[in-house]
Known about the structure:
The complex is a heterodimer of chains A (about 130) and B (about 250). Chain A has one helix at about 40, and strands spanning about 1-5, 10-15, 30-35, 45-50, 55-60, 65-70, 75-80, 85-90, 95-100, 105-110, 125-130.
Amino acid sequence: MISIIRANDGAIKTYSERPHSGYNLALDESVEQLDVDFNTYAQRFTLSCGGRSGETLSVAQSSGDLLVELSCPGESTVDVDINGLVDTLAVVNGKAQLTLSTDVPGVFLLQPADRTRYCAAGEAVLCIEVNPNG
Amino acid sequence: MTYPTSSEVSSGQPTYASHYNNLRADTLWCGSNNTDAYPLGEFLECYAANINIQYLATNRLRVPVDAYRPPAIMIGGCMLKISTYKDLPSGSFSGAAATWYIHAVRTAGARGFTLSVNTTPVDTDTSRPIGSCYWDGATITSITSYFPTSNGMPDPSYDSGWFAVTAGTLYTKTHGLGSVPHGYLLLHSTSSTGATENVVVTTVKVASQNYYYSPVGFDSNAAYIETGSDASAGTLCSTRRLSGGGYYRLLAWS
């Protein structure tokens, strides 16, 4: 049994391993209890790069393209928010991929576009910093 | 102090009242007397050891057993010990938010004990309070063991379990301890199982500033964890790792 906390706009704010009512009524949040394993729920949408997820990756400018892997079991397509722009990816056998360029320094922030279905937290949010050379 | 006060008697030797009374003094007061010491049995009425109360899904409690440090307690003059874990039955909690007291319960003819809960700390010849927990009306949010194993750090009074986090977000966790905790530990993992390195969260970063903040606050009922707004280091800013996502686990000790 896990807890899912939703913000007042319906977006999933977080989900918790324990069935705690850790929600904030003052913020008009709501809580749902779901009879599913925490790890199974967490793996519904994950983003990784080089086998790493849930942490910020730092790469050098012009260090070659980055291959981001997305796991979204049971889906045929999925929308990913990349720095505010939504990209629809085809999902095959629960997996999808996208390539990011390191030609220009900056920050890539990737997360699920549909926040009412997937929580933009945990391993579903991936930040990659491309650091300028020199 | 001379101890023991009683002495051996030989076969055929006459025994006197002093023999009996010294032996009684040794037995009851460890060689002392009734004005300087409580009787041993009365003294041991306070005894309980190695009783660690843990959360058991869903909304249950468990007293685990360490074979080398078994849970032991005296209830109603009976010395009790368990060799297998004891679980609280399902459905033991109900009603509005309240502090519930966890009891060890003795049954005639048994040298172990079982568990029960009540909203009052009842101490009788068959029951002793061994801890308390907070029931928020739907779930158990915190647990306090009165007689935990004394070496090492005791189990936390509050354990949030892992929960998913992202930058720029306030997370409220109801611990229900009734006072601000004496200590806490906030851990970060990149894995939902907590299998990757657990990094201690002490600072998070706010976007566009080179300022780093502690993200945790408490009042008597809740913990407030506010992540920084920086996408790269809003949930963790450590030499071990930077993160704007991942999972937190909050442990607190009352």
